[in-house]
Amino acid sequence: MLVDAKHPFDELDDLVKRTQQGDQVAFAALYQQCHRRVYALCLRLLADQAHAEDACQEVFVQLWHKIAQFNGQSKFTTWLHSVTSNIAISYLRKHKNWLQKVVSFENSGMDEASIALCGDLNGLDKLVLRLPERARLVFVLHGVEGYRHEEIAVMLDMAVGSSKSQYHRAKKLLQEWYEND
């Protein structure tokens, strides 16, 4: 006898629709399904666990308020990644002045001790966290999330050529670090 199993995307679509109707139980289930991916993207972009946790929380607060704006023209996960990227970048900009007093942003990747605390990260993720801020942002947005350099240039308020150059810089650093580890 065949069991009519729901595809995971069908379940996610159902949760999104129910959340759009104000169903808090569905929103909690949506959170359970998506929070790890959202947190991982925030951590890759912000390179700081505490800031990633704060940004992740902000994503879900905004998600609750903005879920009605999701119109289904793209996959929900694509829309959620876009929202997450925008919130993480906004979070970075908002906190940059304070953080600049604490660390140099040219070398704002996490230090080895902080990276060691992220025990569940794989080797590449640990190396990505070491990248300087702009190189890390461009690498994650282009290399991991699949944004085009033109989109990244708008998101980060930089020239397209700068985005390409930062991506090349990140790849070069990652390759050097990988070969030396």
From TrEMBL:
One of its GO terms (biological process) is DNA-templated transcription initiation. Residues 124-174 form the RNA polymerase sigma factor 70 region 4 type domain. GO terms for molecular function: DNA binding; sigma factor activity. InterPro entries: RNA_pol_sigma-70-like, RNA_pol_sigma-70_dom, RNA_pol_sigma70_r2, RNA_pol_sigma70_r4_t2, RNA_pol_sigma_r2, RNA_pol_sigma_r3/r4-like, WH-like_DNA-bd_sf. Residues 30-96 form the RNA polymerase sigma-70 region domain. The keyword Transcription applies. Keywords: Sigma factor, Transcription, Transcription regulation. The keyword Lyase does not apply. NCBIfam families: sigma70-ECF. Belongs to the sigma-70 factor family. ECF subfamily. This is RNA polymerase sigma factor, sigma-70 family. It comes from Pseudoalteromonas luteoviolacea (strain 2ta16).
